[in-house]
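From the pipeline queue, job 12 of 40. The input is one protein chain; the requested action is below.

Action: predict structure.
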Amino acid sequence: MKGVKLVVFCDRNCNVLAPFVSAPGNRNESPLLHDALPQVMRIDREARLDPRDTVVSLDGVYDCRANRKAIFNRGMVPNINPNPSGRKRIKRGRKALFDLAIFKERVRTIERVF
């Protein structure tokens, strides 16, 4: 086993907003979001920040209904790159919101953090 996977929440100024959630490099990242979101909410409460209407921009690996719902139920807006791999048909229902400009900014920000 090589490497470590990290889930990091940071703002546009490259400030890390929550502690890292890590896992072995061979584990899927998507379930790590469920461990990281409560930490973000706890830190927001302690710092008296209001996360409502905050855009949470994530990689395509987090593209699933459960992750979108977890973010939405906390009052935040999910901006997750659609990941069509493994799908035989187009997703049913409303099309998920995705803003490419916000996603590209996220990539640049995360690269600066690491």
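Job complete. The longest helix spans residues 32-46.
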